[in-house]
Amino acid sequence: MALIVQKYGGTSVRDLARIRNVAQRVAKARREGNDVVVVVSAMAGETDRLIRLAQQASEVPDLREYDSLISTGEQVSAALLAITLQSMGFPARSFLGPQIRILTDSAFSVARIQKVETARLRRELKAGRIPIVTGFQGVDAEGNITTLGRGGSDTTGVAVAAALKADVCEIYTDVDGVYTTDPNICPDARKISRISYDEMMEMASLGAKVLQIRSVEFAKKYNVPIHVRSSFNDKSGTWVVKEDEKMEKVLVSGVTLSKNEARVTISRVPDRPGVASKIFTPISDAHIVVDMIIQNTSSDGYTDMTFTIPKGDLKRALKLVKKTAEEIKAQSVMADENIVKVSIIGAGMVSHAGVASKMFGALAKENINIMMISTSEIKISCVVEAKYGELATRVLHQAFGLEKGDLQKDG
Amino acid sequence: MALIVQKYGGTSVRDLARIRNVAQRVAKARREGNDVVVVVSAMAGETDRLIRLAQQASEVPDLREYDSLISTGEQVSAALLAITLQSMGFPARSFLGPQIRILTDSAFSVARIQKVETARLRRELKAGRIPIVTGFQGVDAEGNITTLGRGGSDTTGVAVAAALKADVCEIYTDVDGVYTTDPNICPDARKISRISYDEMMEMASLGAKVLQIRSVEFAKKYNVPIHVRSSFNDKSGTWVVKEDEKMEKVLVSGVTLSKNEARVTISRVPDRPGVASKIFTPISDAHIVVDMIIQNTSSDGYTDMTFTIPKGDLKRALKLVKKTAEEIKAQSVMADENIVKVSIIGAGMVSHAGVASKMFGALAKENINIMMISTSEIKISCVVEAKYGELATRVLHQAFGLEKGDLQKDG
C-alpha cells in the first residue's frame, strides 16, 4: 500500500465527463489499496474566463482581489470531483488552501508555498476518506487568498506530496509524458522515460509546458518522485527523479522552443557603475523575470544593453525601463517581440566538449542567425528570429540524434 | 455621517456594466461622508449555473461540497466590485465568510448565522477602506464553508448591519420596493412606503420574493431599519421598520401569491397518539418546512392527513412519507403540485372582525374553491387550484381597496 498524490490538470477536468473519468482513476488507485490525495486544477478555460473578467473590470486589477477571484476555479472543480466520487460510493471531501492551511508568502498572483500543514489531511486519510485539494492556491499569514502563478497546481501537488512524504506525485495531463521536443513541431519527438530533476527544471524553464518549474524545484528539494502521465490512457509516462548512476548520461536529452520571449534594448546607456542596478531593480521589484542580459562594450563611454523577458510582461517592463532610461539619460528604448528562444538540455553536457559548436554549426548550416546566447552547465539557449523557431527545433533535434536510440535512460 | 450597509442582489451585479453602476452608488455614499460596508450576491445566473453543475455530477450532491461549490459565485462578484472600486480610486477589499468570520451552524445549504465578528470590518473602516462582503455564506466551527439558502445575501446584509449597529441596511434590488402585490399579476399594485417587520415577515414567507424572511427576523430582533430600493434609480423605496404609533394600521397591507406549493395527502391514517409525530419528524429532520397541516376527524379510527410543503422538496418528502405510511399502515399517499397559496397580510387584522369572511366572500363570488385555510394574527392564507392564482390575487387586491388610497403608512 502506497500513499499517492494525484494531480489533475485543467484538460483532465474540462467537463463533467472528464471529471467522471478522473474519479474512476482515483477509485482504481483506492481499490488497489492505496491512500490517495487528489490535487485539481480549474476546469480548462475557467481561469482564462475569470482573468478576462478581472481585466475588463480594470486594466491593472488589484492582485489581492485578482487572486480571490481566480482561485474560485479550483474550488469549483474540487467540489465537483468530490460530489462525483461520493456518487460512486467513495468518501471524498474537497479542501481549500485555507482549510488545509497551505501557507504562502503574500506575493499575490506569484505566491510561493512556505508550508503545507498535514494534520487535516492525515486525519482525513486515517478516516478512510479521499481529500481533494484545490491546486494553485494558498493562504497568507493574514488570511488572504493567494495564487501561485500559471501551472501552480503542479507545485501544490508536489508540495502536498512532499509534506505527506508520499511515495509518488502523479501529474496527470493531456500528453503521455515529457518529450524530447514538442511533437507538434517535430514528429520524430520521443517520450523520455526517466529524466533528472535538473534537466526537467531546465526543460520547464525553457519552454516545455508540461510542468511548472517550481514544482520540480520542490520535488528535487524534498526528493519526491514525479510521474508525468496522461489521464486518458494507462501508459507509463515520464519519471522525474534524482539523478543516479543507473541513469545513462545522454549528451542532450531534449530541445525546447519558447515563444514567450520579448527583447528590450536600451541604446547609448552611459557606461558607469550602478547603471545596471538602476535598470533592473524596478523590473525585479515588479516581479518580472529577466532572462538573458547582454551588454555590449563600447569605447566612447556608452553601451547598449539588451535583455529578454516574458512577452506578457513587455508592456509593464517598457513603462519602467523608459522611466529609468530618461533618468540615466540613455538615448532610446526599443522592443522586439518577434523572437523565440531555442535550447538544448542535457546533463551529459557537463563532461562533453563540442556541444555548443555543434549547436551553432547546425543552425548556421540553415542560415539561422543567432541573436543572443546563454549557457548553463546543462543547457545552451539561442535567441533567433521567430520565423526560424520550428526549423531550428527540428534541426537541433536531428543534429543531436534525439529521434533515434533508446531514450529510456533507466535502461 | 452614518454607517450604511448596502446589499446588492444578483440582477444589480449581473455584468461588469452593472457592477460599475453599483460601484458608483457606493462611491456616492462615501463621498457624502458615510462609512459603507457592501454585501453582494452572485452575478445573476451564476448560482443557477453552479447548481446545474452539481446536479449533473450527482442527483443528490453532498451538501458540504454543494456549498463550497456555489459559494464561489459571491466570491467572484465581490472581487470584481473591489477591483472596479479600486480602479475608480476607492480603497476597497473583498472578504469571504471565513475571513470576516461569519459563523454559522453546520446545516449545509440552509445554514443559520450565529455570529458576525466585527473586528476585521471595523479595522477596515477605520483604515478608510470599503469592505465588500460575500453574501449568502459563512463558515462553521470546523472551518467548512456553508451557505444560507436562497436569498441568503439579504440575511448577510442585515446580520452585518446588526453586528456593526449600522444606521440602515439598504437592500438594492431590481424593483422599486415592496408592493401591495406582484405588479406583474395586478397592474394596480402600489409601492408601500413603510411596513412593519411582522407584516414584512408574513409577506416574505407567503411568496413576496423581495426579501428573505430570515433577514427580516434578524432585522426585527436587532431593530435594524431596512430600506428596500432599486439599484437602477434614486427613488426612495420601502422602509421596513419597527411598528410604531405613527404607523396607521391599514386593514390589509398586501396580497401575496405563492406558486411554490405542493400538497401531500395520506389517507386512512390509523388515528392514534403519536402518529403525527411519526409522520412529521423525518420530514423536519430532512429540513423540509411543512406549512399548513389539516387532519380530518373521522369516526372509524382512521383519519386523512393533508399538508403543504415547498414544491422543490416534494420528491424528497414523498420518499420519507411513503416509508412512514407503510410503517403506520396508512392506506395511500397522494401528491398534488397543481395548487397555489394566496394570502392577505395586515397588522390591522388583529383588531378588525370580518376580514376572513370578506376574503372568503370575494373568492366565492368568482367561484374559486378554497382547498385549505390557515390564519395567524396578521394574515390569512388560502390554498386554491393553481389556475385561479392570478385571478384570486386580483380579486383580493381589489376587495381590500389596495389599489386606491394612500399606502404611505408613515403619512
Question: Which properties best describe this structure?
Answer:
homodimer, 411 residues, alpha/beta, Carbamate kinase, VC0802-like, eight-stranded mixed sheet, four-stranded antiparallel sheet, 13 helices, 20 strands, 35% helix, disordered C terminus
Architecture overview:
The structure is a homodimer of 411-residue chains. The first copy, chain A, is of the alpha/beta class. Chain A folds into 2 domains: 3-174, 3-Layer(aba) Sandwich (Carbamate kinase), CATH 3.40.1160; 246-411, VC0802-like. Chain A is built from 13 helices and 20 strands. Chain A has helices at 16-31, 46-57, 63-70, 72-87, 97-100, 119-126, 152-164, 197-205, 213-222, 275-285, 314-327, 355-365, 389-399; strands at residues 3-8, 35-40, 92-95, 102-104, 113-116, 130-134, 137-139, 145-147, 168-173, 194-196, 226-230, 238-241, 254-258, 261-270, 293-295, 302-310, 332-336, 339-345, 370-376, 379-385. In chain A, the strands form 5 sheets. In chain A, strands 3-6-2-1-9-11-12-10 form an 8-stranded mixed β-sheet, with helices on both faces. Chain A has a 4-stranded antiparallel β-sheet with strand order 13-18-20-19, sandwiched between helices. In chain A, helix 7 (152-164) runs parallel beside helix 9 (213-222). The longest helix of chain A has 16 residues, at 16-31. The radius of gyration of chain A is 23 Å and the shape is globular. Mean pLDDT of chain A is 91; it is low at 406-411. Chain A binds chain B through residues 16, 19, 50, 53-54, 56-62, 64-66, 68-69, 71-72, 75-76, 78-80, 82-84, 86-87, 93-94, 96, 98-99, 143-145, and chain B through 16, 19, 50, 53-54, 56-62, 64-66, 68-69, 71-72, 75-76, 78-80, 82-84, 86-87, 93-94, 96, 98-99, 143-145.
